[in-house]
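Q: Is it fine to ask for two folds in a single conversation?
A: Yes, each is treated on its own. Send the first.
Q: Here.
A: Result:
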Amino acid sequence: MVLTFTAILIGLLALVRPLQKNNFYILHSAIVILTAYYVQTHYFTVTPFAPKTFMLFLVFHLVSINITTMVAYYVDKRAAIRHAWRVPENTLHTLEFLGGWLGALMAQKLFRHKTVKKSFRAIFWLMIVMEFVAVWIILKYLKLL
């Protein structure tokens, strides 16, 4: 399980250049890999690259990316209050596209952050639509739809 998760996350990091500069993606990857290691050593082992392993990866990924996105919004909100260096908007949008849109939506409501700027909101909703389209294309390609 750890081998599979590491291969997927590090592979994405190597292939997608903007992720290499995204510290929150690194945090997300570390959370997923460490959680997988803990589950594998304490509860059960899974065959690498098996369908069950990919399903577990999706669950771990979605939980972790949403938590990481909420942390990113919190860090950005605190920086905005202190007039410090902010989290770039493309970093937030990348996290949203990777599945953290629910965490972003919750963080926007909870922290009252990034709710007024129309250009950010438009790209936020575009990221959600693009993610759903990407998932639909993947499911069609895998003949699951």
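Q: Second one now.
A: Result:
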Amino acid sequence: MDAEAALREACESGRFHEATTLALERYGPEILGLLAARMRSDADAAEVFSIFAEDLWRGLPGFAWRCTLRAWAHRVARNAANRFALAGARRAALGQPVPGEAIEAVADRVKTTTLVYLKSEVKSEIRRLRDELPPEDQLVLVLRVDKDMEWREIAQALADEDLDETALVREAARLRKRLQLATARLRELAAERGLLAR
């Protein structure tokens, strides 16, 4: 059984604690990697990941399966990051622990192993180049290239609401073009720094 089918079966059976654990194990590392790229601070990324894990746990009972759980989880993480960024001085109040020891343990394990992996020298150089791109370009690049998400799934993950079929196709095409422009810009930046032959 693939991950999405197992997650759906757990949710439909009312086993939300199990579904949250499965979702964090399956999608947690990629989401934390995305948060680390966006937040530019391991401590902030870890805090947002904790907020995301709680939001995921609380939101699963109401998830309607109009998109993949993977896309929805990315949307939940993006919303958690946005709230964190807006909170400023209230950040500490948002960082409540994830209910349940098992879920907290999974979140901690994902944070520990993923943040160590992200510190390699090559990753640091790539991150520095990506940091010069606009935030939406960074998100599209990470979701498509690093996480190998399909265009429709990326469009769903980055949308603020559910999209009808026409809007979904149009948004996927817009994002595909945005990635082309972002990768061209990355090549320019790499060439400027002598990382690529012109």
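Q: Anything structural to flag on that second result?
A: Two points. The longest helix spans residues 165-192. The mean pLDDT is 81.
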